[in-house]
Design brief:
This protein has three helices and 18 strands. Strands 5, 6, 7, 8 and 9 form a five-stranded antiparallel beta sheet that branches. Strands 14, 15, 16, 17 and 18 form a five-stranded antiparallel beta sheet that branches. The structure holds calcium ion (CA) (2 copies).
């Protein structure tokens, strides 16, 4: 037994990777896995709390911390950022996207003030820390929320935008922002779309690129149709991909609609 433990410890020290293969404790929601390696390989929320009485996903818990697994020259590290006093993370899973093209992934999170509601927050690896890079303003009222669509080049100009639905059960407006490495600036606002129903454990849709065209996939405001949206010449172009139904979002994201 002694030998087995010692050997395991040596293997851990030799590779530096064992910590990242350890079970992830107290995960809230799902673990996001990066598509392309840009520093951050995985990200997730953890440390559940019942401090925020909203239950937008049908569960009583939100998360107190965001964690990112980082593959670097020294091996694998897990970095942690706390939501902070009076805040929680209110989301299904973080999204890992290089929004400003600098080769370092940003982590897109939904950070919620217990009194001012949700904001979109971007985190990035700076030194050995998972740091806040930029945030949108809070919605301004408790129990008001936003649901990320993700990151993609919605207007075809070669730069990546980040999109979310502002109050998906009330306002149903898609808001699109650009990150320049320092701040988030709103560039488009498209009404009449949503991606979540109260109590759903998932946020539906996302970005897709089909035939070289990048679009968002969401529902229409009435949750009856699946919609593709992009920006052409500064204006939103929306296409009806078909009726809502089981597997409809997944089919659309696979370019099946
Ligand atoms: Ca970046
Ligand atoms: Ca763009």
């Amino acid at each position: 037994m002694w030998y087995a433990v010692a050997a395991g410890l040596l293997a851990c020290l030799a590779t530096g990777a064992a910590a990242c293969n350890a079970p992830r404790a107290a995960v809230v929601g799902e673990v996001a896995v990066a598509g392309g390696s840009a520093l951050v390989t995985r990200a997730w929320y953890a440390d559940p709390t019942t401090d925020y009485d909203h239950a937008i996903f049908g569960r009583a818990t939100t998360a107190q911390v965001l964690r990112a697994e980082v593959a670097g020259a020294d091996g694998c590290l897990i970095l942690t950022a706390a939501a902070g006093d009076g805040h929680v993370f209110e989301d299904t899973a973080p999204r890992i996207v290089d929004l400003d093209g600098d080769g370092r992934a940003e982590v897109i999170a939904v950070r919620t003030s217990l009194t001012q509601g949700a904001q979109l927050a971007l985190y990035g690896v700076r030194g050995d820390a998972l740091a806040v890079l930029a945030t949108t303003p809070y919605i301004g009222q408790a129990r008001r929320w936003l649901a990320p669509v993700g990151g993609g080049d919605i207007d075809g100009d070669g730069r990546i935008e980040v999109a979310y639905i502002d109050r998906p059960h009330l306002d149903r407006v898609m808001r699109v922002w650009r990150f320049d490495g320092a701040a988030l600036t709103e560039v488009y606002r498209i009404p009449g779309l949503t991606n979540h129903r109260i109590g759903d454990p998932v946020i539906s849709g996302g970005f897709r690129t089909c035939g070289g065209v990048t679009e968002t996939v969401t529902a229409d405001a009435g949750w009856t149709r699946v919609m593709a949206t992009r920006i052409v010449g500064g204006r939103a172009v929306m296409r009806d991909l078909g009726p809502m139904g089981q597997g409809a979002f997944a089919a659309a994201l696979r370019c099946g609609g």
